[in-house]
Amino acid sequence: MTIESLKPFLTPRSVAILGASQDPNKVGGRPLHYLQRYGFKGPVYPINPGRPEVQGLKSYKSLDDLPEVPELAVCVVAGDQAVTAVEDAARVGVKGLICITSGFGETSDPEGAVKQKRMVDAARAAGMRMVGPNTQGLANFANGCVASFSTMFTTLKCMDGPIAVVSQSGAMSSIPIGLLAEKGLGVRYSLATGNDADVSVLEMACAAAADPDMKLLLLYLEGMPHADKLADLAEIAHKNNVMVVALKSGRTAAGARAAASHTGALANEDRVVDAALKRVGIWRAPNIAGLVSAAEVYLKGWKPKGRRFVTISGSGATGVMSADHATEAGLEVVSFPPDTRKKLDQILPSFASAANPIDLTAALLTNNSLLGQILPVIADADAADLFKVDMPVAGPGYDMPGFAADIAGFSKATGRPVVVAGWQGDIPGTFRAAGVPVFPLEAEAIAALAQLVAHHELVDRAKARPRPHWQPFDAAATAKREVALNEAESLSTLARAGLPVVPHHLCRSAAEAATAWRNLGGPVAVKGCSADLPHKSEYGLVKLGLDDEDRISEAYREMEQAVAKAGARFDGVIVARMVKGRREMLIGAHRDPFFGPVIAVGEGGKYVEAMPDVALLLPPFSTDDVLAALDGLRCAAVLKGVRGEPPMDTAAFADAAVRVADLMLRDPGIASLDMNPVMIGDAGRGVALVDAVVMRYED
Amino acid sequence: MTIESLKPFLTPRSVAILGASQDPNKVGGRPLHYLQRYGFKGPVYPINPGRPEVQGLKSYKSLDDLPEVPELAVCVVAGDQAVTAVEDAARVGVKGLICITSGFGETSDPEGAVKQKRMVDAARAAGMRMVGPNTQGLANFANGCVASFSTMFTTLKCMDGPIAVVSQSGAMSSIPIGLLAEKGLGVRYSLATGNDADVSVLEMACAAAADPDMKLLLLYLEGMPHADKLADLAEIAHKNNVMVVALKSGRTAAGARAAASHTGALANEDRVVDAALKRVGIWRAPNIAGLVSAAEVYLKGWKPKGRRFVTISGSGATGVMSADHATEAGLEVVSFPPDTRKKLDQILPSFASAANPIDLTAALLTNNSLLGQILPVIADADAADLFKVDMPVAGPGYDMPGFAADIAGFSKATGRPVVVAGWQGDIPGTFRAAGVPVFPLEAEAIAALAQLVAHHELVDRAKARPRPHWQPFDAAATAKREVALNEAESLSTLARAGLPVVPHHLCRSAAEAATAWRNLGGPVAVKGCSADLPHKSEYGLVKLGLDDEDRISEAYREMEQAVAKAGARFDGVIVARMVKGRREMLIGAHRDPFFGPVIAVGEGGKYVEAMPDVALLLPPFSTDDVLAALDGLRCAAVLKGVRGEPPMDTAAFADAAVRVADLMLRDPGIASLDMNPVMIGDAGRGVALVDAVVMRYED
User: Could you check whether the bond before residue A620 is cis, i.e. omega within 30 degrees of 0?
Assistant: First the structure.
């Protein structure tokens, strides 16, 4: 539905330019210039009442004068006239409008927002979709529909290719295209959505991802108010085998401030963005270079079988560094089986090394066929999944075209990824021409391979999970007031959800407390219960290890007094069995305004803010997802058992986390949950919630 | 002394080539070819008994036939003949010999090592220095003395410049030169030391750093057996204002294995390498790109006054990303004072943003003098230390040469670092020509500035410290056997060194133990003492919180029996006051075979291996160094006090760490110390060592 409505932007039959300028270097002249330069085949109608023709095309006075209703209109008229132009376009039945004009929602002037709303209202009433305002425009280099004013497309002759670049920012819709062109890669779509007033960047990304020719989609975002569309995008991309790499800026406080003043983006909690992208199998790039760095390996369509990595180099040093980089990137620098080693030794001269990294020294100079001989030996033995060949120095004597042909042939025959590291002279050109991805330096080549492996793992896991129930941002929801349940009510809520709450009784008298102690048998914890005082220990409302009637009665009376003294409501005293787990963990949950329930799992204790060791998960998720998240924690090894200790009951912990997620999905009245500590015992001994605070929304 | 002896390698008066070949593309022909191509002015003597002349120069039969004794000889004869050639050169009085020939210490053949030793012995007996064997050679592009066979120097026309590249590996002596040439930077020295049989890579680095024209020294190492020379290098470089960046590979197990087979490097403990480089103010690069990435800003000679950072951009998106990257790199994205903001607002058009990042939007297109106007406003207010200008898109309308002149002029007038991010078209060339460092993308520009700031801080701290007492690697020292002291002896050793050991008594009878308890007053820890059983708790040799005579006597008897049962020597029982610190810390010490005493400070407890939070320090160091190290720990905030808790006594902890370092320096008989836990209390309450194991070398 969305995608259908966006087709006029990508493949329009006809285009009108509202306010077309004669000067091809002005914002108002560029779209017309580019439509002609890039060979758009459909009718193009410049609208400029002041001229009989514009840039060689017959000019029209208004939309009403055109011989047909254009499918796409591009609005470049100045200032307030843009509002009228949008209304006109909606009236005559234009299907899609790109409003390049700026000065609306992105300004600090409240009038700008009002005018922008008028445009959106007019468009929506007429069933017209609108991109912008304040957008650099859209380009499709397959059909020449380049309705953009990007300066990049003047200096660069853009080529079509299986990549889409979709961005809120104009600059970031074109910078990646320039960088990819330097690698010889073409891009089909450059889609800048500007103020996202009607069509959002993620909707536009969905439309691009649905193009069956796409293999890679690069996304630049400063805000993410439409989480539902992120789930759509992932679904469409996975179905269409498009890998998605996203650069979401505004990660830091300074960045979020800058984003708010740039695109008016609402700040996302960055750890939630991380978790959300991971949840749906989208790779997060740290910077512009990281957005484009692995493009070549993505386009090969490789799906690596594993992480076993081999480097073949003519330089010992690049081999040593590659072993370091590969290990640090999580690849396995495999040792060859003796058989394979022997076969390699027979091929290699004595001074070369057949260990991994394979150091050919200068042997390639004397025997240009070495590479073609050794690669199949490794593949035949199924001894590695990923290959890198270093060409650190080029010059007379090296048959680069021959090496390129050998590598390309090997990779094609085996389907295994092989990349080259080299930058000198014609190395990049020669290997690219043969279809071999080439990176300037070893670290970059290894990073790209490691990203390919990890991204495919992410996609596979994402595909196996049910779709998240994300909703569009709802400002009203964030304004709801919250109220704390007292500890007894909190524990009851969790117990009803099937969580292993510590055996306890809420007692309303000292006698009841003593009875509770006798029933529980053994030492108990006594805790004053008041919804008004969540930080119990600060008021002396926690006593541990009490094991005789007098001290329990005394504790009851003291706590009753302490609560009264604090002017708080006294809800009784909880008498709970003392539980000694192996380690204090935590499970927390809150509702993100963009992505809904977020579950935190990790180490508990009192320093969780100062020394966090926590992972976030977005439901629905499985116990396997929780176990994988625990594996990424600092305390992972301790949970598994070190120094001869038995493993802890991570299975029970994971089960508890899944139940918390279910509870958050089932009961929208719960604002947040904080369970700290969750005591974890030896494997098979379970976990126990000993303390919890549940916050509910007020009715 | 060292440096004097290496002068013949860098600035020889005359050069002989032993085994010079007629073919300029052969290893044996390249040095002669390059000496002529790069215009070496002194006499060059090819020695090749088979030809009357070589590459146009008169050829000689042997060294004895030359009209003079050459100061430098380059040996390119094949295989074993190299040994004779070296002996001949030593005999006639050559001052320096570069042995390019390979097949010696780097091979697995023990004969190779024997032959290599013969060469070294001959050289040393005659007072001749030797570089290599198995080296790519040395180059000085200032005087044209290019005695190397690097293929790079064929394809690249190398330029002289204030940079030295010094490397064990041949490839890594030339790859950085090619990468720097792409930035328009010249390099004076390319020095590959190969097997380091006589002259080591660090000695060679000292010689290069002593050249008064040098500003930057790039170092590639796979091993670091000469720690003393590392200290020399730092001293010379600091004195001469040369910044040193080192890439030490073999960081991982796989990398160390590869290095051992490449240069025969002995594996260094990588965390110690980190600490050592930091100790002497050398920046550690993570990879090849990181080795050269900041070269342009180093060469400007800037010393930033602080970390306050400003971005000026024509793209909102690069501004947002810059704010993220700068924050993550530890720079401060400053807010301008109202005055400055007001002045900027007066200059900028209304749609631009005068906040930091300053977003000029497309205003630069209409007013090319904006940049030149706003930079001084910020500098005049002293509102920032570091500046970056983004040029994400180039094209018609942008006066790049004008911007470059404005930026260069501003930087020159104020001495403040300004860099540009931009890669398109002639941007790099235009700004470089004006002397403005330029980086392709924002993240790289910011990383370079952050490195410049952090490296200068490192150098300043290094200069303020006394020189470390590092010694050359001594294989014999690593073979010494170690023996554990029992806990009582260990604690005594530490108490004598002025460390705050918990009050305790070593008791040889149950009665003595009871007396000790009475004397100490209050609950005690009782611990069985046996040098044979350092892991006490596994044998039931630790009882805590005992506070009555019977239980103490009983504990004594049980422990005596437990030690006997384990077949170990019973040294008595330690009765110690129970100490409740705020947190369990650790101080450890060991002797690194390369760098001597290494002190570890950090969190204690039983999971120090599984969840390490530890920093390493190399003595001598000050309590300030310890405090700075603690600041980098995960537990830093907790030590300083969070959630209303008072700070802990880091001053006392730092004092203890300094005393441990002094002890390790003073008493070479101590192999290692392990103090875990060191209980730390509130500020002013001190620390207490409650457990310790001292290992001594056997006599």
Answer: yes
Inspect the interface and report whether the beta carbons of B634 and A611 lie closer than 8 Å.
yes
Rounded to the nearest angstrom, the gap between the alpha carbon of residue A190 and the centroid of all alpha carbons in its chain is 20
Separation of CA A296 from chain center: 20
Give the separation between CA A400 and CA A395, rounded to whole angstroms.
9
Q: Which residues of A touch B152 (CB under 8 A)?
A: 393, 395, 424
**Tokens in use for A388?**
């890198």
What is the spatial distance between Cα B297 and Cα A321, in angstroms, rounded to a whole number?
25
A-chain residues near B321 (CB < 8 A) = 247, 249, 255, 287-288
Task: Outline where A18-80 has alpha helix (H).
Answer: 30-37
A103 contact residues in B (CB cutoff 8 A): 351
Within a 10 A sphere around the Cβ of A67, how many other Cβ atoms?
A: 9
Q: Residue B127 region, left (φ>0) first, then alpha (ψ -120 to 50), else beta? A: left
Q: What share of chain B is helix, strand, coil (3-state, %, to 5)?
A: 40, 20, 40
Q: Count of residues for chain B? A: 699
Q: Is B226 helix (H, G, I), strand (E, B) or coil?
A: strand
Query: CA nearest B633 in A: which residue?
Result: A611
Identify which has the larger pLDDT, A239 or A469: A239
Rounded to two decimals, the pTM is: 0.95
CB contact under 8 A, B262 and A359: yes
Residues 6+ apart with CB under 8 A from A280: A230, A231, A233, A234, A462, A468
CA–CA dist B90, A401 (Å, integer): 45
Contact A689, A494 (CB under 8 A): yes
- Identify the helix (H) or strand (E) that includes residue B598: strand B596-603
User: Which H or E element spans position A673?
Assistant: strand A670-680
Peptide linkage before A357 cis (omega within 30 of 0): yes
| Cis check: omega of the bond before B620, within 30 degrees of 0 | yes
E strands, B451-508, are: 482-484, 504-507
Residue B363 has pLDDT above 80, yes or no: no
- State the Cα–Cα distance between residues A673 and A484, nearest whole angstrom: 10
Three-state DSSP class for B238? helix
Task: Report pLDDT for B1.
Answer: 60
**DSSP per position, B514-570:** HHHHHHH-S-EEEEE--TT-S-GGGGT-EEEEE-SHHHHHHHHHHHHHHHHHTT---
In this structure, of A200-214, A374-388, B89-103, the range with the lowest mean pLDDT score is A374-388
Are B261 and A288 a contacting pair at CB < 8 A?
no
8 A C-beta contact, residue B96 and residue B128: yes
Round to whole Å and give the CA distance between B148 and B133: 13
For residue B326, the chain A residues in CB contact (below 8 A) are 254
Whether residue A657 is predicted with pLDDT greater than 80 in this model: the reply is yes
Cβ pair B316:A289 closer than 8 A:
no
A426, closest residue in chain B (CA to CA): B155
> How far away is chain A from the Cα of B610, in angstroms, using its nearest Cα?
6
Which residues of chain B make contact with A316, given a CB cutoff of 8 A? Answer: 169, 171, 258, 261-263
Low-confidence winner among A373-382, A428-437, B89-98 (lowest mean pLDDT): A373-382
CA B607 to chain centre: 28
Domains of chain B with bracketed CATH:
2-292 (3.40.50.720), 303-464 (3.40.50.261), 503-577 (3.30.1490.20), 583-697 (3.30.470.20)
CB atoms within 10 A of CB A548: 11
Name the DSSP letter for residue A539.
G
- My answer on whether omega of the bond before A677 falls inside 30° of 0, hence cis, is yes
Residue appearing with tokens 């969905």: A206
Alpha helices in A223-305 (DSSP H): 227-239, 253-263, 270-279, 288-292, 295-299
- Judge: A258–B319 Cβ closer than 8 Å, yes or no: yes
The amino acid that residue B157 corresponds to is K
